[in-house]
Amino acid sequence: MNVRSTAPTAAERLLSAFEGAMGIPIPVHVRCWDGSEAGPDSDVTVVFRNRRAVQTVLWSPNELGLVRAYVSGDLEIEGDAFRLLTLPDLVDRLGTLSVRGSDRGTVLKSLATFVRLGGLGLRPTPPSVEVARRRGAKHSKARDASSVSHHYDVGNDFYRLFLGPTMVYSCGYWDQRSDDRDAIGTLEEAQNEKLDLVCRKLGLQSGMRLLDVGCGWGSLAIHAAEKYDVSVVGVTLSHEQAEWAQARVSEAGLSDLIEIRVQDYRDVVDGPFDAISSIGMSEHVGDSALPEYAQHLLDLLRPEGRLLNHAIASVRSLTGTGNSSGLIENYIFPDGEVLPLSRTLDAFERAGLEVRDVEALREHYALTPRAWVGRLRDSWDDAIRLAGAERARTWLLYLAASALGFEEKGRLTIHQVLAVRPSDDGSSGLPRTRALWLG
Known about the structure:
The chain is α/β, with parallel strands linked by helices. It folds into two domains: 10-116, Nonspecific Lipid-transfer Protein, Chain A (2-Layer Sandwich); 141-438, Vaccinia Virus protein VP39 (Rossmann fold, 3-Layer(aba) Sandwich). The protein is built from 18 helices and eleven strands. It has helices at 10-22, 51-59, 64-72, 81-86, 90-94, 104-116, 141-152, 156-163, 187-201, 219-228, 239-251, 290-300, 327-332, 341-351, 362-378, 380-387, 389-407, 434-438; strands spanning 29-31, 37-38, 44-48, 75-79, 209-213, 231-236, 258-262, 273-279, 301-314, 354-360, 412-420. It starts with 9 loop residues before the first helix and ends with a helix. 43% of the residues are buried.
């Protein structure tokens, strides 16, 4: 007579151990390397493909262990990844054995279970795409160039998979007709609307000279030259971006109006410019270098010249949240700093710039990464072929987390700050009303 075993499966033991150590229920389905499953029915399943996935989660603090296990392919997320990232407390506490809500006996029992499951072995080697220890002073020119290269020099064709033909890597400007969160088909329209909004805020007119700091793949430079007949100097630290941008400029027949340089903005000395744009670049500058950034851009502007700074901002301090040791710092933007808006405004005003307008675009950025996630998923095989499985996984997780960061109030936002260099007599050169200077 066969008696069915009632011993807990690997998945049941693993789920129970995590819940005991963390002191909270885990409302996701779990599957283990032996095919066993546990947990409630859910629209997301966390798959531990091997014991190394458990080791990685346990060895690394905060969310970094979860990121490392996923990026390396030891842990899979089936179903709605957005749902997993929004579960309260789970991501913040999964990578560390928190004793909140658990008595000492429960925690010791969980540790014993992890040992039996092989989860407390030697520290696993981080994925190859994780940023190595950086050299040199933070925000030195050499270190900034290395950090920018890590993020942007991963293949133009890879970026094109999710950015689309506009190759704009910042939030779109979605009008009311595009209020659907999954309105992927209107991404190009939203990005072109954003480019034109920037040009109108800068008051571009034929014959003007524009400096585009952090010009990316040249999209704004081309739009400004084609639509507003201005000459543009675009600078980037990414060699791959510069090559792509230069080819686009040549193809568009705009080489007489646009110059793309591989150059640190601090080395630009051929002002004055009538206008300066900085779209998604000042996040790389850092808090300590922000006053130098503001002063140098002021020095490059002619009197009554306008500066538009488009940058992500933190709503509350990110210190202590785990971000500094997690996904963003170790995989995406090494040395990047997301600062409160007040820091930027203070640096601008201390340098002598007059801030004339601030527009928050949080809802617009919440829509944009969701569109990027959809496109990356639709091109997943190509993404792996172009960038490798680890990097493709990194970007998918990063874009999904970014969308949620902007959707949840009180975490991240983004602002366009319009400032001017006043003339000696105090004139800003701006019309008195926003409606007039927006055109």
